[in-house]
Amino acid sequence: MLTLGIDPGLATTGYGLIRENRDKLVFVDHGIISTSKKDNSQNRLRTIYNSVKKLASDYKPRVIAIEKIFFSRNRKTALPVSQARGIMLLAAAQLKIPVVEYSPADVKVAVTGYGSADKRQIQQMVKHLLRLTDIPKPDDAADALAIAICHLHSYRMTSL
Questions:
Q1: CB burial class (10 A; 0-12, 13-18, 19+) of residue 103?
Q2: Is-catalytic flag, 58?
Q3: 6, 44, 46, 138 - which has most CB atoms within 10 Å?
Q4: What is the per-residue pLDDT across 37-79, written as a single tens digit (0 to 9) for each?
């Protein structure tokens, strides 16, 4: 099963694609979608929408896993990130791809086994679980891979 993980953001959205093949996680791709602060919000949202739709159309994931917004982290960015998430959900709905959402704590537990893991611990586990030689960069893409891993681990547990 191919999963597209998304770490939503207005300036930078991370994405990561992982395939599960015979109970093994297989790295497919990762990267970021960037928008310019010089652009108005409509153009930034259009860029995100088109990019997510293209990724989903090109790779044809079976599911999109997206991180829930954690409002107390940075209230100033909550509204723009919520708008970006809405655009991502619209793209998935138009392509008829199911979306599942996970909190940051869900992702930490699924990837490291510890709900208070720091970013470095998560990145090290992503590298280990996907058998990569280096920690995926940039951080937003590594986070998106962690979200995809979270879904694949959760899916395994709920589909037994």
A1: middle
A2: no
A3: 6
A4: 999 999 999 999 999 999 999 999 999 999 988 665 566 678 8
